[in-house]
Amino acid sequence: MRGLERLSSIRRSTPVMAAALPDLPMPQTVMVRLIRITVAGMTQYFEPIFRAMGLTENSFHVLCLLMATDLGQASPSELSDLVGTGRANMTRIIEELIGAGHVSRTSAPRDARRQIIQITETGRALALATVPRMVEPLERAFSGLSGAEFAQLDGLLRKLIRSFDNDAVPLDASA
After folding, report:
1. Cβ(133)–Cβ(49) below 8 Å
2. For residue 27, what are the β-bridge partners?
3. What digits encode the pLDDT tens for the residues 66-90?
4. pTM for this one?
5. Contact 98/106 with Cβ under 8 angstroms?
6. Which of the residues 19, 45, 50, 102 could staple to 97 if both were Cys, CB 3.0 to 4.6 A apart?
7. What is the pLDDT of residues 120-141, one digit of tens each?
8. How far apart are CA 128 and CA 102, in angstroms?
């Protein structure tokens, strides 16, 4: 389903949803739906580029993060937090990268229970080769926004992310 179809679906289903669930705050619910279809659209948009390079969006992100560290290494939990994925999914991503020879895993010198993931020369080369293929699609993905709109979106998304930490109160699961 393309973006315009998804937006049309939200437009059609929102009044029905509002009638069926009158106590559900619709502006916030629609915002969640918009963010979800944005993420789905980004994944569909970039997936063919990453697949052609033998990567996924998350595995490329891991390689980029490792290249950005002083020693080219991080723990799985650090990578999980920075990529924004669960620990189990990060374990799967790391296993795939290890299998492909793009990263290696060792135990921390002072704590054998702690794993260290380090980028290999092969992983570095792949990340560097992927970057030129990402430039045009990245620029095209945001070409519908002016510079000011892009900056505004950046600020609003950062504010939203902070609101989950600062203002949101987790509900009791039994509530």
Report:
1. yes
2. none
3. 999 989 999 999 999 999 999 999 9
4. 0.82
5. no
6. 102
7. 999 999 999 999 999 999 999 9
8. 12
Task: Please tell me the distance from the alpha carbon of residue 138 to that of residue 119, in angstroms, as a whole number.
Answer: 24
Whole-angstrom distance, CA of residue 131 vs CA of residue 175: 47
On whether the CB atoms of residues 101 and 123 are closer than 8 A, the answer is: yes
Q: What residues have CB less than 8 Å from 130, skipping those under 6 apart?
A: 50, 53, 55, 60, 63
Helix (H, G, I), strand (E, B) or coil at 60: helix
104 vs 72, 90, 95, CA distance in Å? 11, 14, 9
Rg (Cα) of the chain, in Å, rounded? Answer: 20
Q: 89: Cβ–Cβ under 8 A, 6 or more apart, which residues?
A: 58, 80
| Gap between the Cα atoms of 22 and 16, Å rounded | 10
- Cα 34 versus chain centre, distance: 16
- Both tokens of 65, joined, read 């993060």
117 strand-pairing partners: 74, 105
Instruction: Assess contact for 66 and 72: CB atoms under 8 A.
Output: yes
Taking the C-alpha atoms of residue 8 and residue 20, their distance in angstroms, rounded to an integer, is 19
